[in-house]
């Protein structure tokens, strides 16, 4: 049996609000196999985004564990989690979350610039830059390299975000309602792109969505309700 | 109402504004403290100078500046005539005649030390063997200077026996008053006999104004003390008539200098000019001659006062730099606040807030910050100026570092003078700068397109 | 290790937010003010130090008891390692009086201090031949382009009756001066022989008293001596006539105002130790010493002190270096500079506030970016580095700009001051007041390096606080920040 690229084992997460403890996730088990596309469905407030943040090591679970390629990530320092996140996962957000001061190309390059010193980066500059241009070309933005996020449409921005996520060659991409803010025609294009990437590169996806159509096209669908996985 | 409410909310929820306020506080504080020290220093020096002198001094002087181009030697003042003229002047409160000479005071058989090295002597003198010998008329002197108060010295053992007649002869010897510190340093007591070694311009010297040596025995009457250490160290006081007889046996009542006190509130410069004209007429000065000269106390101490006042002016310029940087700080915090609150500005406009109202919100933020800073700065500035001496002693005790060289300037404590005009100027300037730098971001906020902020781009 | 992403972001953030320019300007203004003001103050102090130094010798043996002779001290000191030359000095007090012609023959008159023909003076007796080797005295006779000529200071004329009384005034010059003063003179200058020893006064005195070389002057003083009636030693007034021999200018105002230089033998004679008398001693009050170039004056000072104090009766003697000789002057000015520095430090402090405020706000506004960076995998350290880099750039540019501006200002301060005066009648530095031809500026390398470095470090410190806050931000909260 293949090791899941991403696994959640009995994940618990609760937040403190004053004196009361509000549980959001109450024991979530989830396994994502290499190259698998998993759709994560659930009502608003079911804990989808929290789960995604935990999977991406942006947050620390109150209980349970997240495993990357079978290795536990519990007890790692913030810096270690950052490095693991950098190597293993990519994020795509509903609101794109691009850095407004940077051009599309620079936003994509940002991933590669991390964990490389200025000198190292300067040494590999050409190669890295070509890689970013290739990625942006692949997502259909060959003509928009020098544009800033404010000069791009919503669909274009999301494509830049996808290219940025691909730049570090992650094993799995966590997408938080990637089409939630797009009109249906544009959304269709973005979804197509994600499936295409999945097929070409074998990257696993966890896609949070409300759209049953999208969920239906995925390999597997997981539903969250009240902090638990229901089937 | 909402404007005030919002301004208050914005201020309280953003601690960074405290920084802007602190900048203003520091600036105002420094402006007040430093200038108050300098003003205090000037005030103390002025007070010292004035305690030891009269408002105006009329000096017997004649002919051209060069002694070789003089048509005739300096003539003694016709004191009786001058006194009549001066006392008719409405501004003159009192006059006192003086003779100015020099001399060396020593006990018999006592050898004076060589003069101190220049760089090791007291800046104000008091340790050189030669002194100025002032011939005074005690009763008249008291009407023109603070002479009566000079006789109240710290050490009662050195005080004169009879303050009403301080220069009364002792054992049929003429008497002298010495500065208290000098008297203590020389180990003299009232009643001690000393010799005044001096010289006088010989009468009947055929060709040139040569000086012949002169020794006179005096008794020490006691000490005097003005607040001007430089005066006390360098002057000894003797009776006018006694000195006059020694120096000019041929003249009945010679006078070289006239100290004049004016009524409080009199115009110093106008009085000087008027009295100078009177004196020239009385002396029969011909046109083109210098004649008797009248100097104000300020003119007689010009170089010292000017240099301190200039230092204060220079310090003010440097202090303005503080206000400039503090203004930058205010501007930065406020403009960032506007930038951050663009969303709120959109909402406010959508709710019907006018551009003017929005401007008022941010302007009142700025003004409130400045006001708080100015108030805090003024209060702390005044307090630190007042308690600077305590602070100096604290630092001195703690680290051994003396922040202010009081001894150099013959001061007891760090001087300070809080000038209400200067404090008001500083406060007004700070408020103006504060209002100005908050007006810019406030205007920007008012001009802001509400649609842009609502779109949240 | 600075991450490439931190570097790129820092530059972009700074460029897009011009309020940061204010931070740079604040730091620059503070550095500029500190450098300029310090340079001017150091210039003033340096000027005073130079002036004071010029009037001082490397070492000075002083605090000698009354009636100390030179010979034994000379023999003791001359052999000390590091002593290049030495010269005797004799200080005494006096009042000088310019002899003036009297229009109204025979009438007595007052000594007139107000017209400055009479004043207190400190007489310094020197041995002209030896003095030139220990002090910068030859420089005292140079003022701007003018050479202030003491009459034959160095040369002893052959016809001089008493070769020991140097500072010789040529007969014709003295003849002229005496005639103008109304003293009896022969009909022809050629029949006149020099009568009085020469005396040097400062150039300022020459101007204020309208003196010309050759004029007769009286010095009134006192000496401690046996009296004619044999009633023991007593202080008696003495008068000696001198001829004004020339002017000097050291630029040290107090020295110039109070000093009269006379030949030491004349002063000794005045004080009752005439060279020709039996039992006279070569009286001195100080010994001026020049230290061999390259030797540490402090070491030589200690050696000389040890040697001098070993002599009988000289346990209380002191050996002073040039700073100790001028303690009073140097102390007063140093304190003013210190006070100015406190004021400038406040400027620096507010500039630091400014940088802190701008960076703090930047972190607040960039909270979402921090979340994004976390999501892409930036470490907390990388995020902190981004904002710290902003501070570094602000500090670096501000410090350097302040440094450049400061150095340029010191170069241009005099033209600007001239221009202000010529066009607006404003004078920032009244030169008359300080008796200086131009505003002195002195750039000290230590200060030029120290101030920008300190400003930079201070900026770094205040940038570190917001950077740390950014690094410690929780990614989830940062992402959901609106």
Protein model, in words:
The complex is a heterotrimer of chains A (231), B (457) and C (482). Chain A is α/β, with parallel strands linked by helices and 231 residues long. Chain A has 7 helices and 10 strands. Chain A has a single domain (6-230), classed as Rossmann fold (3-Layer(aba) Sandwich), CATH 3.40.50.300. A 6-stranded mixed beta sheet of chain A has the order 6-7-8-3-9-10, with helices on both faces. In chain A, helix 5 packs parallel to helix 6. The model of chain B has no long low-confidence stretch (mean pLDDT 81). Chain B has 2 domains: 2-48 and 304-455, no CATH class; 52-300, no CATH class. In chain B, 51% of the residues lie in helices and 15% in strands. Chain C folds into 2 domains: 4-50 and 330-479, no CATH class; 63-103 and 112-285, no CATH class. Chain C is elongated and about 110 Å long. The two termini of chain C are 31 Å apart. The chains are: A alpha/beta (231), B alpha+beta (457), C alpha+beta (482). Chains in contact: A-C, B-C. Chains B and C meet through helix 2, strand 2, strand 5, strand 6 and helix 11 of B and helix 2, strand 3, strand 4, strand 8 and strand 9 of C.
Terminal CA distance of chain C: 31 Å
Helix and strand element order of chain C = HHEEHEEHHEEHEHEEHEHEEHEHHHHHHH
Q: How would you describe the shape of chain C?
A: elongated
The overall pLDDT of chain C, averaged over residues, is 81
Question: What is the overall pLDDT average of chain B?
Answer: 81
Encode the helix/strand succession of chain B as letters. HHEHEEHHEHEEHEHEHEHHHHHHH
In short:
The complex is a heterotrimer of chains A (231), B (457) and C (482). By secondary structure, chain B is an alpha+beta fold.
What would the keywords be for this entry?
heterotrimer; B: 457 residues; alpha+beta; 2 domains; six-stranded mixed beta barrel; 15% strand; C: 482 residues; nine-stranded mixed sheet
How are the SSEs placed, and which strands pair?
The complex is a heterotrimer of chains A (231), B (457) and C (482).
Chain A: E1 6-17, E2 20-32, E3 37-42, H1 48-55, E4 63-68, E5 71-72, H2 78-88, E6 89-92, H3 104-113, H4 118-138, H5 154-167, E7 172-176, H6 184-201, E8 204-208, H7 212-217, E9 220-225, E10 228-230
Parallel strand pairs in A: 3-8, 3-9, 6-7, 7-8
Antiparallel strand pairs in A: 1-2, 1-4, 4-5, 9-10
Helix pairs in contact in A: 3-4, 3-5, 4-5, 5-6
Chain B: H1 2-13, H2 16-51, E1 56-59, H3 79-87, E2 92-106, E3 130-136, H4 138-144, H5 147-150, E4 175-179, H6 180-186, E5 193-201, E6 211-224, H7 229-234, E7 235-239, H8 240-247, E8 257-262, H9 268-283, E9 293-296, H10 297-300, H11 302-340, H12 342-350, H13 355-386, H14 388-399, H15 420-447, H16 450-455
Parallel strand pairs in B: 3-7, 4-6
Antiparallel strand pairs in B: 1-8, 1-9, 2-3, 2-5, 2-8, 4-7, 5-6
Chain C: H1 4-16, H2 19-54, E1 59-62, E2 68-69, H3 70-78, E3 83-98, E4 118-126, H4 128-134, H5 137-140, E5 142-143, E6 146-147, H6 171-181, E7 198-202, H7 203-208, E8 216-226, E9 233-248, H8 253-258, E10 259-263, H9 264-270, E11 283-284, E12 286-291, H10 297-309, E13 318-321, H11 322-325, H12 327-365, H13 367-376, H14 380-424, H15 431-434, H16 445-471, H17 475-479
Parallel strand pairs in C: 4-10, 7-9
Antiparallel strand pairs in C: 1-12, 1-13, 2-11, 3-4, 3-8, 3-12, 5-6, 8-9
Helix pairs in contact in C: 1-14, 2-12, 2-14, 2-16, 12-14, 12-16, 14-16
